[in-house]
# Entry
Amino acid sequence: QVQLVESGGGLVQPGGSLRLSCAASGFTFSNVALSWLRQSPGKGLEWISEILTGSASTYYTASVKGRFTISRDDAKSMLYLQMSSLKPEDTAVYHCALGSEATWTLLGSWGQGTQVTVSS
# Structure
């Protein structure tokens, strides 16, 4: 049974940083591409970043590129999202998900999420 559990969210001031973590279990972690999604108030789930197997490649949506960094630790079955230069529009619930931008909706597996609020 796939389990994805996010942590690390909180309240941060504009320009600040946060590191999100995702603990995964129930599948062969190293064999799977992984993504971070977010859902802002009143909006649907939005893909924001992915990392392929072996950390070979990473991709970002334009709004977070240069500010967010995705990484993975296959030995610990952990996915991370380092967020810096945070903006109020980054306020959302952040979810980790199986799959890439092209496949996460088909796989349909993501965690409950962690709330990130960017506000002064």
Summary: The first strand starts at residue 3 and ends at 7. The mean pLDDT is 96. Residues 13 and 63 are 18 Å apart (CA to CA).
